[in-house]
Write a structure and sequence with these properties.
Blueprint lengths: L1 H11 L3 H14 L4 E4 L2 E10 L10 E7 L10 E4 L30 H14 L9 H9 L1 H15 L14 H12 L1 H14 L2
Antiparallel strand pairs: 1-2, 2-3, 3-4
Helix pairs in contact: 4-5
Length: 201
């Protein structure tokens, strides 16, 4: 009996590493595609689809998740790998400014909550008064139609299934660098977009 009691109280307070493994298993057994890096449970990628009936519907993002040592007592850190236009996501780093993941996180939540609730809520209900992307926030408040158009343009340009790239398709690191330099020369790629746009039937 003694052993049983010890066992059950232990189950209630699972150690952070046990809990991390459990939450990872739950996430991997769910419908989300999870890519671990060298079986490391502290950093991994999850494929995330924009919520239905939102401006982001149809978009696919690769989300980088980092679990702190003290997870679940400390919140995971979450960032978009491919670009997204949103007031609460930093455009260059993809870092997410999300209260529930930062201040109000509780060990009651697990990783599936992040992808089933927190991120969809964030995309459906942006908070322009606490922005990470000031330009997106002011555009949302100033001209909603222009904001919506820009969100959709970003989805089209950066959030197609091929944009989250399967790791094996990347032949060498050099390719990556070229892509980065192209995206930094924003003006060039914008011109190309316009030309491509006119060519479409």
């Amino acid at each position: 009996k003694e052993e049983e009691r010890g066992e059950s109280s232990h189950r209630g307070m699972a150690s952070p590493s046990k809990r991390r493994e459990m939450d990872m298993m739950k996430l991997m057994m769910s419908d989300y595609k999870v890519d671990t890096i060298n079986d490391d449970l502290q950093m991994f990628y999850v494929t995330f689809h924009g919520p239905t009936d939102s401006l982001y519907e149809g978009g696919v993002w690769k989300i980088k998740v980092e679990l702190p040592e003290a997870y679940p007592y400390k919140s995971p850190s979450v960032g978009f790998v491919n670009k997204i236009y949103h007031p609460n996501v930093d455009e260059s780093s993809g870092a997410v400014c999300l209260d529930v993941i930062n201040q109000t996180w509780s060990p009651m939540f697990d990783l599936i909550n992040v992808f089933e609730s927190f991120l969809p809520q964030l995309l459906l209900y942006p908070n322009p008064s606490d922005p990470f992307n000031g330009e997106a926030a002011s555009l949302l408040m100033r001209d909603r139609a222009a904001y919506e158009k820009k969100v959709k343009e970003y989805c089209k340009a950066y959030a197609k299934p091929e944009d989250i790239g399967a790791p094996e398709e990347i032949s060498s690191d050099d390719d990556d660098d070229e892509d980065d330099s192209m995206s930094e020369r924003g003006s060039d790629s914008d011109d190309n977009d316009e030309i491509a746009g006119k060519a479409d039937p």
